[in-house]
Amino acid sequence: MTTTPLAIGIHDLAVATASSVVELDDLAARAGIDPAKFRIGLGQEQMSVPGQDEDIVTMGAAAAQRILDRHGADGIRTVFFATETGIDQSRAAGVHVHELLGLPRSVRVVELKQACYAATAAMQAAAGLIARNPEERVLVIASDVARYDLDSAAEPTQGAGAVAFLVSADPALAVLEPIGGLYTAEIDDFWRPNDSVTAVVDGKLSVSAYIDGFTGAWDDFRARGGVDVTEIDRFCHHQPFTKMAVKAHRALAEHTGVELAPELVALTTGYNRRIGNSYTASLYIALAALLDGAGGNDDDLTGARIGMFSYGSGSVSEFFTLVVQPGYRAATRGDETAALLDARSRVDVDSYRELHALAHRDSTVDVEIAPDSPGEFHFTGITGRARRYSRG
Ligand code: CAA
Description:
33% helix, alpha+beta, nine-stranded mixed beta sheet, binds acetoacetyl-coenzyme A
């Protein structure tokens, strides 16, 4: 007797970001750079910037709250929190989110780290848990603040954002197909030492390492029986800046010798152009943009196979595929995400630079921070060397 494999995948996906935004035209004007370099050369228009009462916990909680509002917490026994911007060397940031959201005690919470890749590791681990017990659902939260040095070439590729997604059996949005391709290579392209709030990056090397990771993961995907490139209908990439996805798409066409239309990737960039890099969240924000039709595209994607490329510098790469489910549109959140992007307050370059300087907090100095961002969750300061949060 044969049994049908259990369909496991993404049941719901919510995006969150910080409440302030910098126009890259303003940054270009300040630096005396042609704004077209950022808009066209990098494919970026804006970058979200956290206020002093916002961080990975507040953004992650905001995204996760919307998932719980729709589905409740029944069946959730695991929360995976993926981030590059860890706030503590020991405690998972997700434990703060667990408390803020009032999740049941009978839940395990773990943080995963591998630069921008960890949300994909979380999704695969979640699929394994659900294969063992299809009644369970796993809440994955990916939340990051991309911070580079002021006045560096990487500065316009900063940003801040989070996603929360529910992994379950019989998902409403997209089924995860079983074959994935992997590629790991130790490389000094981007990392963040424990004593630094900004990343160390070799920009040019990072771009070529990303492409090598992509083609390497693709080759492994094919060697394991993954579908031909012509059987993939859309491509979503990790987007440190959206032009990177375009470069990777071209590289895959060259690598496979198959012409790939630019539209297959262009429809995934609508949110990331406005949020900036959100590290672990970026690939899933690209997926949200595609499913929401945020690129102004109204195609029905039912049954479409989406190629997903996840890259974490250092480096770990994974290529896998999702298949969009019938009725997915009823589960998308385009209006909600558009509203939260539009609601951000524009800050000028001087104010952004002041916020950038606040990123480093000495944990030995108690500080109280008055909630001033409009969101529901706030970082309220440090007491007794621990970060404190509030809701409401
Ligand atoms: N009009 C239009 N385009 C222009 C222009 C103008 N006036 N002036 C320049 N450009 C174009 C350039 O031709 C170039 O395009 P191509 O790449 O297509 O050739 C593009 O703008 C960028 O310009 P530069 O090559 O001069 O690059 P830069 O010195 O400004 O640095 C960068 C770009 C290396 C990406 C830098 O922003 C950086 O270090 N960013 C952080 C690292 C990063 O994001 N790496 C991506 C891969 S690693 C990863 O994915 C993990 C992660 O999240 C960090």
